[in-house]
Model the fold of this input.
Amino acid sequence: MSISEQDLVNFHESLDRASSSGKFMDVFYDGFIASSIDVEMIFKDTDMDRLKRKLKSSLHMMTMLVDNEPGTEMYVGHLARVHDRYNIPAEMFNVWMDLLIEAVRVCDQEFDVRTENIWREVIGRGIAIMTQGADAKVIEAV
Ligand code: HEM
Done:
């Protein structure tokens, strides 16, 4: 799927609707942390309130990455390095995406198949870049 400008507008609208529900990040992280003992252990020392605030910004950042906005590759490079420290298996990123979409489904009243496809495409690209290795990301995303 290629992403049009309209798709990016719709992604932001969906993200805004989900965020304004006031429970989007809670639904997502509650589900993700409950998905396995391994995930629970990874987050055992994390300040979750702080992480929830950061994740919301990073989701906006993912669309800027897809839109080839200059400078975003540096942020994604930073994210990649943060995650590289935890040796996260590829499968965990799939679970992460499925549960994020599930949280959007719960929190965005206008969620439909088209919205889901846009989320999968945007986040899928972000994950692909994040998981290629921290050094590769900065170069690849330019
Ligand atoms: C595209 C997918 C993901 C995005 C956009 C994302 C986003 C973020 C962001 C924005 C941060 C904060 C970075 C900072 O401190 O500057 C973070 C930290 C973190 N993420 Fe992710 N994440 C993703 C996938 C995952 C997955 C699959 C895991 C698996 C468990 C994970 C585990 C963590 C951990 C452990 C931290 C550090 C928490 C801490 O500071 O204690 N993330 N993530």
